[in-house]
């Protein structure tokens, strides 16, 4: 949702400055080997260096080696080539994949022609859109598209995007940004581009931007606020969020990227297990583990001041969604070592299954929302990612739950497919309901739109990879045809305002996540499993691939 009047404002310049100093120290440590000056000794502690008075002792060499991320070693540790080996595919699969590649090229070419450097393309008016989510940052579509272009072997287009990042991507901006959106799209996009290509520019931009996000964590609990000024470091809560609260899906969707920022910089500040007021992502879990959860469920609004829930609304769709996703993916990304994340995920899913999973009269399984004890029999398009997530976690569940969770994942994905199937355009609405005789259809005018969202095809992609049931490719191909028919316009792809009419009005917006996610997941659906293999990668919530930590890549 767009920020309304953002309040309350919150700023404490001192702590951010301390954090920035820590990071600068780490950046120095990441530089070439340094030796201590004669007559002095340096102490390395918790990422900080302090000079001690000269003792007259002989010059001591520094004991801690300067940090360098060993890209070559990381690359060698991958179990599959990132773009796969291209073995054993049938001509139809190949031609469908090529069609999706053509769609990506069309989306990119039009963005480049009419909106390069703006955040999104307006394909009807053929101009750019900037918006107010990214705090003055530009080029959201460039950064979101980088890894998709690379994976699809659109080499020339990838070079165009890279050149823009090198020459024009300015991080010295002064504006109010969504911590969540900047993290998942920009930090995630840059990290993925670095891991895929080894190009230093992506790493350095990711680290620089990550540093600018840190002051948002300067709250009494360490739960970050949702909005941050990228220049001053002032942060505050969204004006629309109850009583200055932070949003579960926002502060719960930082972990994957922040662990990689720590990994690449050698600086634990992004993820450190601290009990100071500046504690960062690991601390978020501590707060969540401390607070009592109604029936084991996680409400969507938490006070960053008290660490208590502010309102009892629970949803696996908007406001809650990617918090759950990042728990299971944190565990997978840690090479199954992060048992805290796994336990939190298992417990949360158990509570969701017990209290929110329902079956309609017509036999469709869905996940309802919960409002202080009452169920709202509605599923948002956003909640449709959960089929893929539950499938991803199923094989690692306790023995007696494995099949049950796999069935649940398939049933939810089927319900989301029904929400597409029951529309005239074969694209799904923003939200669909199961009440008053309605099943898997929007009942409100305001919920009939489709803005090129990825969640349904995301679940098709996971379900395909994990079951190889051909229906998922078939369903994905239906989406391709519907996008071509209803969303493709002269200069790009556009969202539509009503999925229940075959002559829909376009919303004149080519969302950056269409290039980052929708087209990437569709493409992967028609690839062999070794392209961005799930053995090597987890996808962040914007579909940017981040590597599973098979080994320690410190040089
Ligand atoms: C994307 O930015 C991400 O998938 C996010 O988690 C939810 N919303 C959009 C796509 O619908």
From TrEMBL:
Q: Where does it live in the cell?
A: Endomembrane system
Required co-factor? Ca(2+)
According to UniProt, this protein's pathway is:
Protein modification; protein glycosylation
Q: Which residues bind Ca(2+)?
A: 541
Keyword Calcium assigned to the entry: answer is yes
- A single GO molecular function term of this UniProt record: calcium ion binding
Q: Which GO terms describe its biological process?
A: carbohydrate metabolic process
Residues of the region (Disordered) are: 1-68
User: Which residue ranges have biased composition labelled Low complexity?
Assistant: 1-16
Which cellular component appears as one GO term in the record? Golgi membrane
The EC number(s) attached to this protein equal 3.2.1.-
The chain's disulfide connectivity reads 384-416
- Which transformation does this protein catalyse, written as a reaction? N(4)-(alpha-D-Man-(1->2)-alpha-D-Man-(1->2)-alpha-D-Man-(1->3)-[alpha-D-Man-(1->2)-alpha-D-Man-(1->3)-[alpha-D-Man-(1->2)-alpha-D-Man-(1->6)]-alpha-D-Man-(1->6)]-beta-D-Man-(1->4)-beta-D-GlcNAc-(1->4)-beta-D-GlcNAc)-L-asparaginyl-[protein] (N-glucan mannose isomer 9A1,2,3B1,2,3) + 4 H2O = N(4)-(alpha-D-Man-(1->3)-[alpha-D-Man-(1->3)-[alpha-D-Man-(1->6)]-alpha-D-Man-(1->6)]-beta-D-Man-(1->4)-beta-D-GlcNAc-(1->4)-beta-D-GlcNAc)-L-asparaginyl-[protein] (N-glucan mannose isomer 5A1,2) + 4 beta-D-mannose; N(4)-(alpha-D-Man-(1->2)-alpha-D-Man-(1->2)-alpha-D-Man-(1->3)-[alpha-D-Man-(1->3)-[alpha-D-Man-(1->2)-alpha-D-Man-(1->6)]-alpha-D-Man-(1->6)]-beta-D-Man-(1->4)-beta-D-GlcNAc-(1->4)-beta-D-GlcNAc)-L-asparaginyl-[protein] (N-glucan mannose isomer 8A1,2,3B1,3) + 3 H2O = N(4)-(alpha-D-Man-(1->3)-[alpha-D-Man-(1->3)-[alpha-D-Man-(1->6)]-alpha-D-Man-(1->6)]-beta-D-Man-(1->4)-beta-D-GlcNAc-(1->4)-beta-D-GlcNAc)-L-asparaginyl-[protein] (N-glucan mannose isomer 5A1,2) + 3 beta-D-mannose
What is the membrane topology listed in the Swiss-Prot or TrEMBL record? Answer: Single-pass type II membrane protein
Catalytic machinery residues: 181, 321, 430, 455
Q: Which UniProt keywords apply?
A: Calcium, Disulfide bond, Glycosidase, Hydrolase, Membrane, Metal-binding, Signal-anchor, Transmembrane
Family as reported in the entry's similarity comment: Belongs to the glycosyl hydrolase 47 family.
- PANTHER family found in the cross-reference section: MANNOSYL-OLIGOSACCHARIDE 1,2-ALPHA-MANNOSIDASE IC, MANNOSYL-OLIGOSACCHARIDE ALPHA-1,2-MANNOSIDASE-RELATED
Protein name as catalogued: alpha-1,2-Mannosidase
Q: Which organism is it from?
A: Caloenas nicobarica (Nicobar pigeon)
